[in-house]
Amino acid sequence: MIGNYIKATKAFLTSAKLMKTGQTVSQQTGDDGDIEAGRNTSFSVLAQNNPFGNTNRFTSTTGNQTYTNTIIIDWSTFDGNNVLGWSNTLRGPSPTRTWSQDIADALLLSIGGFSSGWRIPNINEIMSLPNYTYLNNFIQYAPFSLGAVSLNTSTRQTATAVFKYASSNGTITSVDRFSQFNQYIVCRTFTVTGTILL
Known about the structure:
Helix content is 16%, strand content 20%. By secondary structure, the protein is an alpha+beta fold. It has a 5-stranded antiparallel beta sheet, with no helix packed on it. Strands 4-5-6 form a 3-stranded antiparallel beta sheet, with no helix packed on it. Mean pLDDT is 88; it is low at 1-10. It has 4 helices and 8 strands. It has a single domain (57-197), classed as Roll (Mannose-Binding Protein A, Chain A), CATH 3.10.100. The two termini are 24 Å apart. 25% of the residues are buried.
């Protein structure tokens, strides 16, 4: 019982601090590049080992950095039991598919042997990906390298409007969910048992 309490507390404490932005070049004392506030050693290096025994923030499902099945695990989201994984494949847009249809399609995806649990991420999940070192395209880094895209999220602003994220300039805007067609990526919560992801 005490061991579980310590594990839960440690996971809670390490995730209580926001991630670094990735910005390392300073323009003046006190800016983000100077202070580099946030958890982990850097944007892509964890302060402690992931379950595979390395400090890589992003790995494949087998702990290396060879993404043969296009699944990227983000160990900065690991809470001791679950971790968020991403598919590196852009989907859409299709002028014949609405936001609601894209949401439904994502739930039916099977990627890399994982046949359920895939979904379009919410706005906070998308906002965990930008690395602000890369000007004019904040998700243009390995292992993502998505290009300058506008990504739909699963977060609605109103009954008719949803939020999208533009990786070219880091803006979040509201778009009509019935007439705006944007690309999207999908994510999934994985349960972690040792080095096995379920």
